[in-house]
UniProtKB/TrEMBL annotation:
Compositional bias (Basic residues): 22-33
Region (Disordered) location: 1-36
Residues noted as binding Fe cation in the record, renumbered to the chain: H334, D336, H391
UniProt cross-references to InterPro entries, sorted A to Z: Alkb, AlkB-like, AlkB-like_sf, Oxoglu/Fe-dep_dioxygenase_dom
Record's protein name: Fe2OG dioxygenase domain-containing protein
Cofactor remark from the record: Binds 1 Fe(2+) ion per subunit.
Cofactor: Fe(2+)
Organism ancestry: Eukaryota, Fungi, Dikarya, Basidiomycota, Agaricomycotina
Domain Fe2OG dioxygenase: 316-433
């Protein structure tokens, strides 16, 4: 779930003679005058990397960031625009062939890359072709960021059932006005106290207990109160609310307050299109090659030992998050540990603007690998060394929207292109339970015995 930071000028900070550069330098010197050097010395390697790529001034040098798109001549227009470019040799990684799955689909690249420092991490550059990217963007905004799926906006606003994006499209088609969306707190005008007090100050970081087959029943029966709407939220026009969209839940419902799934809400669906893209990615990977040098012990894989041999058949995505990042947003280092399947693939698809993605190890003390993710790239996190590794997105890179998303065949794409100019979308899909496992039935049955 990306969090927003304050807005800074988007002007070009790479040119030391520009007014924007000089202004940013002055601001930087003022802000850092009293910086506590001792505190910086205490940063973990992950925190230090986050700070480095987040820095607005001086803009970070990306020459140590892996950027495999620079190897692909068909992407040269994309990689040569703007100032942000990494290097194809920045990080130790190895190319492996993909399986020939024989299914026509979005598979445009025949390459995958694996990382000796992070066994189980697989990068599939350009996995989704241009049309597939456009379809996924439409899918994310029109079909996912709407009722019954929960979005970050639902806590504070009374949203139209069609979702904020479809309402925005209606407004552009002049089917309705640029209406005011009312704050949710206005539904309870006589209640001075919100139902559940919101934490004061900055958002609390909740360290959740890793889910497993043994504790999921306790975790799922723990109270999951709805977040309280802010009483200071003001009415806002539809057009102004669109850029405030940050996430939408898909599949099993995720409760952000406890960072656990709320199984009692029942199983939401994940659309067939996205399931098939993710399954295709998992089926395309030669898992025997990915884990051939894996040094982890069988026990690290859980009680049944390594199960990658069956992923081609049994991998079944059942939960996920669609993240919407504006170019000033970041996603802090975290581990996705709410899923009972602790080693099954997590498939993550990047769309729109590019970003720096960091992936480290099981603690923040492991220096993370920086990877530049561009539109159409897919990442798979799997296995005991990677699936629960710390990772985050310290930087979304402005001016990196690829040409094929700037314009489309149809005029209707223009509104998407305009939105994407400052946006990155990430579709992050997980498998919570082993295939065939029905948690609701299982909880009820166990409760009776
Ligand atoms: O945006 C990304 O690439 C990663 C998102 C992520 O880690 C998450 O949603 O848990
Ligand atoms: Fe994550």
């Amino acid at each position: 779930m990306p969090t927003a930071t304050t807005s800074v000028s988007a002007a070009d900070l790479h040119d030391p003679t520009s007014a924007a550069y000089k202004r940013a330098r002055r601001r930087h010197l003022k802000v850092t005058r009293n910086r506590n050097q001792d505190a910086e010395a205490d940063w973990t390697p992950f925190r230090a990397a986050e700070k480095r790529y987040k820095a607005r001034f001086p803009p970070p040098d990306l020459s140590d960031v892996l950027d495999l798109a620079t190897l692909d001549v068909s992407r040269s227009e994309e990689t040569s625009r703007g100032r942000w470019r990494g290097r194809a040799d920045a990080v130790a990684c190895r190319e492996i062939e993909l399986n020939d799955c024989g299914d026509a689909g979005p598979l445009t690249s025949r390459k995958a890359y694996i990382f000796p420092d992070t066994p189980g991490l697989v990068l599939l550059p350009s996995f989704i072709d241009a049309e597939g990217q456009r379809q996924l963007v439409r899918w994310a905004l029109c079909e996912q960021a709407r009722h019954p799926n929960e979005t970050n906006l639902d806590t504070h606003y009374v949203l139209p059932e069609v979702g904020i994006w479809n309402k925005y499209l209606d407004m552009l088609r002049e089917l309705c006005e640029d209406e005011y969306i009312q704050p949710r707190a206005s539904l309870h005008p006589n209640t001075s106290e919100p139902p559940v007090a919101e934490p004061q100050g900055s958002r609390r970081l909740i360290s959740n207990e890793p889910a497993s087959k043994c504790n999921y029943e306790t975790l799922s029966s723990a109270l999951k109160p709805p977040a309280a709407p802010s009483s200071s939220t003001q009415p806002i026009r539809v057009s102004a609310l669109v850029p405030k969209l940050r996430w939408a839940n898909i599949g099993w419902s995720y409760h952000w307050g406890t960072k656990q799934y709320d199984f009692c809400k029942g199983k939401g669906t994940i659309s067939q299109e996205v399931r098939s893209v993710c399954k295709q990615a998992v089926r395309a990977v030669r898992w025997d090659r990915v884990f051939e040098d894996d040094k982890s012990s069988d026990g690290d894989w859980g009680e049944d030992g390594p199960d990658w041999g069956s992923w081609k058949e049994v991998y079944e995505p059942d939960a996920g998050i669609v993240n919407f990042y504006q170019t000033k947003d970041t996603l802090m280092a975290h581990v996705d540990r709410s899923e009972v399947c602790a080693t099954s693939p997590l498939v993550s698809i990047s769309l729109g603007c590019a970003a720096v993605f960091l992936i480290g190890g099981l603690t923040r003390d492991v220096k993370p690998t920086p990877i530049l993710l561009r539109s159409g790239d897919a990442v798979i996190m799997s296995g005991p060394a990677c699936r629960r590794a710390y990772h985050g997105v310290p930087r979304v890179l402005e001016g990196t929207l690829p040409p094929h998303l700037e314009s489309g065949e149809d005029r209707e794409w223009t509104v998407y292109a305009e939105y994407l100019r400052n946006t990155r979308i990430n579709i992050n899909v997980r498998q919570v339970f082993p295939r065939g496992f029905d948690p609701i039935h299982s909880i009820q049955t166990e409760g009776k015995t």
